[in-house]
């Protein structure tokens, strides 16, 4: 593994390099203090991972990462910072990890393990499968790590394909597809649109014909799949087999939860996907809250805040995560962040759901404003 470290403090560069040498076989090919120079070097060099400080002069680490990822979208980024407030933005950039200074050696070791696992899983085999992603925005990957966002001719073509993918390997009757997609049209017109839409889907799938084939069967259609890896199915199997959460297994939990790139068929308003989407979203939420509570119980407040913030980003209506952050900020004597978190939650719930935060949160917040010490319960 080849790495470049970017930090405006030479002592921080030297320290991180020494720690990496102690715990891994990672080869540091560059230590750079200037972000402009770092940008040029990263684009020029064959490098696997960047350890990137956020508080850089001239161009902060978030901006530098955005610029680099435009040209090298598969580059692994590890953010290193003295603050936890950039965690959500880091996750938006799909950073592989986010380290808060000072970095304990054991925490850095877990990061290196995560990098190693990621690089190993990116190895391309000769007879490579087609990776089909339905977590978050739908995409496919002929080569692992190079996402292709499929351009469907029409919205109905997208829904027809995704419904058949949802029921892959099973026959779906034409009459049901008509009822699903064109319930209000005359049968003759609906049949015509169905055949046209099937044509659009088949035309789009030609590029992936070795893996995805739409077949006529009796009075319906079957989507046949071969040598595909569906991210949703992989993720479900991994999360179902997680052991009890403890110091040994927490890194495994983190790896599995990071694979959740968004809700099932996120962005599509399909009633037939809602129950599946909600069920597995709640499974992810339960595990994410477990991780946050685990870190909080073990007095690792930086990681706890990171996970509560991540939960608020992925599922913003999770009141318990907002509440936990408010309590932590209160304990840290950070009233501005308490107010900010509460106002964000109140605004989101009012706009999206039309309700106020629950009575426990409102009561705690009002008591806290009055100066009472009710931070823990």
UniProtKB/TrEMBL annotation:
Subcellular location per the Swiss-Prot or TrEMBL entry: Cytoplasm
Response regulatory domain segment(s): 2-116
One Gene Ontology CC term in the entry: cytoplasm
One of the GO biological process terms: regulation of DNA-templated transcription
DNA-binding region: 121-225
GO MF term set: DNA binding
Residue numbers bearing the 4-aspartylphosphate modification: 53
Pfam family, one: Response_reg
The entry's keywords: DNA-binding, Phosphoprotein, Transcription, Transcription regulation, Two-component regulatory system
Protein name per its UniProtKB record: Response regulator
Source organism (scientific name): Virgibacillus dokdonensis
Lineage: Bacteria, Bacillati, Bacillota, Bacilli, Bacillales
């Amino acid at each position: 593994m080849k790495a470049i470290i970017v930090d405006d403090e030479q002592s921080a560069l030297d320290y991180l390099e020494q720690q990496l040498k102690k715990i891994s076989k990672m080869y540091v090919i560059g230590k750079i203090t200037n972000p402009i120079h770092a940008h040029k070097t990263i684009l020029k060099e064959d490098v696997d991972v960047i350890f990137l400080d956020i508080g850089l002069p001239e161009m902060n680490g978030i901006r530098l990462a955005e610029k680099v990822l435009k040209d090298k979208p598969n580059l692994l980024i590890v953010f290193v910072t003295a603050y936890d407030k950039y965690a959500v933005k880091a996750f938006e950039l799909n950073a592989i990890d986010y380290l808060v200074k000072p970095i304990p050696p054991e925490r850095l070791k877990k990061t290196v393990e995560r990098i190693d696992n990621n690089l190993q899983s990116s190895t391309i085999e000769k007879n490579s499968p087609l990776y089909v992603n339905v977590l978050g925005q739908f995409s496919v990957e002929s080569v692992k790590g190079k996402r292709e966002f499929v351009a469907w001719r029409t919205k109905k073509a997208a829904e027809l394909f995704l419904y058949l993918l949802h029921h892959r390997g099973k026959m779906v009757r034409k009459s049901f597809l008509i009822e699903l997609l064109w319930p209000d049209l005359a049968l003759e017109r609906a049949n015509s649109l169905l055949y046209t839409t099937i044509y659009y889907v088949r035309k789009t799938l030609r590029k992936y014909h070795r893996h995805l084939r739409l077949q006529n069967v009796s009075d319906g259609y079957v989507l046949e799949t071969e040598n595909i890896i569906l991210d949703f199915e992989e993720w479900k199997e991994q999360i179902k087999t997680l052991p009890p959460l403890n110091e040994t297994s927490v890194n495994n939990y983190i790896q599995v939860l990071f694979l959740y790139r968004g809700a099932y068929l996120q962005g599509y308003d399909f009633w037939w996907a809602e129950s599946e989407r909600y069920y597995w979203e709640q499974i992810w939420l339960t595990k994410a809250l477990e991780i946050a509570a685990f870190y909080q119980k073990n007095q690792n407040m930086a990681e706890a805040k990171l996970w509560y913030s991540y939960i608020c980003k992925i599922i913003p209506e999770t009141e318990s995560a907002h509440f936990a952050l408010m309590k932590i900020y209160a304990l840290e004597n950070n009233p501005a962040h308490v107010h900010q978190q509460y106002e964000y939650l109140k605004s989101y719930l009012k706009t999206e759901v039309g309700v106020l935060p629950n009575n426990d949160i409102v009561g705690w917040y009002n008591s806290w404003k009055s100066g009472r010490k009710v931070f823990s319960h």
